[in-house]
Amino acid sequence: MARNPRFNHSASRNALRLAGAAFILLGGMAAAQQRGGTLTVGLGYDIDTLNVYSTGFLGDVQAAVVEGLVAPDAKANYVPVLATQVPTVRNGGIKVAADGKSMTVTYRLRPGAKWSDGQPLTSADVKFTWEAVKNPKFIAESKDGTEDITSIDTPNATTVVVNYKRVAPDFMSTLFTFGILPKHALDGKDLNTDTYNEKPLGTGPFRVKEFRRGQYVILERNPYYWRKDSKGVQLPYLDGMIFKIIPDSNTLVTQLRTGEVQLAYGIPYSQVKQLDGVPGMRIVKNNVLSWQHLDFNLKTVDAFKDPNVRKAFAYAINKSAVSKALGGYPTPINSVVVPVFSYTNPAVPKYDYNLTRAKQLLDAAGWKPGPDGIRVKDGKRMSFKIMAQAGRSTDEDAQQVIIASLKQAGIELQPDNKSGVAFRDARYKGNYDLFYGGWITSADPTYSVFFGSKGVNNGQGYSNPRIDTLLTRAESTLDPTQRTAALREFQTALMTDLPSIPITSNPSMIAVTEKLGGFVPNPTNMTNFVNTSGWYLK
Hints:
Elements: H1 21-25, E1 38-43, H2 60-63, E2 70-72, E3 78-80, E4 94-96, E5 103-108, H3 123-134, E6 149-156, E7 159-164, H4 175-178, H5 183-186, E8 206-212, E9 216-221, E10 240-245, H6 249-258, E11 263-264, H7 272-276, E12 281-286, E13 290-296, H8 307-316, H9 319-325, E14 331-332, H10 355-364, E15 368-369, E16 375-377, E17 380-381, E18 383-387, H11 393-407, E19 412-415, H12 420-429, E20 434-440, H13 448-451, H14 465-474, H15 480-497, E21 500-502, E22 504-505, E23 508-513, E24 516-517, E25 536-537
Parallel strand pairs: 1-10, 1-11, 18-19, 18-20
Antiparallel strand pairs: 2-3, 4-5, 5-7, 6-7, 8-9, 9-10, 11-23, 12-23, 13-20, 13-21, 14-22, 15-16, 16-17, 24-25
Helix pairs in contact: 8-10, 9-11, 14-15
Keywords: Signal, Transport
Pfam family, one: SBP_bac_5
Organism: Deinococcus seoulensis
């Protein structure tokens, strides 16, 4: 799924810790949980759809409504949700064929789990999810993973056997982690137009009461929710949640200060200190699995097809200045694989800030300074549009630093920022010259969705057979040693070719009322709302 904007990796190192797994996913429980109350959340983007398989944004609201078979916890370890355990080779949940070319994954579903209309969850729903998402008529944000499955067997109502045509170590980063679709409600329906997209039916702690586009989503307690706390009290504790859509970060911060909003993430770094002093509010730093990047459109901009031009851009960008402009919170990086992962490659080619080197590369490529200082080649000025998400002040601030840095090298950039669906479409379709933004991944990223020739998030049109080969190798083995070797080689090849410049890894700053108990941030693209059943207001 895009957002790997949803991704993962080696199943073997995500071994299940059965004891306390549900407790961990809930973020732990304080001794004095209170039942009732409504939490108001501020979202910094306009929701396109509430269908988790169609949205081009992080599924914050969706994570509180629909559930998958497993999910990453606060430490990015997979724990069971609708499945009773995480499948592994050790526990027999994963079986690799004798020829090493295919595998089966078996899930045991949680007895007694129900949809929010009271109907039972069964293995037929899991099989239907695969069939519905892979359907060519369904316009999904990503069908990642569907093509790897040859068939699904459902020997009984609580057993699902998924047959893969390849060894797929990334299986938990796709379909069944992000949500199961209700067969009894959607069978025979057009998933592109069905009312499910505005009011999805789920097994999660909450259900959608009202969705007013561009304004808010109101959630109410799911009376059929299956989970109970350690004392036998049915969850969730909260009566409901209100998600207010507030794309402008300044407005969002104002409403946090006044108490109109009680929780929001992605707080602009420039305003963290102001909120930190607001009575009754605390700031939480969430080191998310993300990286900020500058992508070149390789489909329509001829200048960017020259790797030396791309490298000149990299040398001209002062990453430390970007971090400083954002309060010092971001960490400059040299690879698209963030340092938290064991397979990050510290030996990749690096492009430390070097304005002289940037100018030398541009001179050699035939781009000479014009009368106004902007470089020219064959009568064409080195002037491009750079897109970021409108209203996201942190990205817009970084964008200004990048514009200033590149101007010193004789490159003119003009902001062309978009919001909502326009931003999403431009990002995926490559309707930009340059794109500055960030990706947040799963606990186990699948990098082919970004850099594979057919990657769903590869809007820039990058294609490199060697990269494809290395990513196929990394994404076709359960052996962590082989996988690490392929991914490190991939990073070297990518940073040599440089279709995208990794800039920084940015923590997400969360403002949350001190009255909210049970809240623990989640570092993955499953969002902070994957564990809402254990939240309570004091």
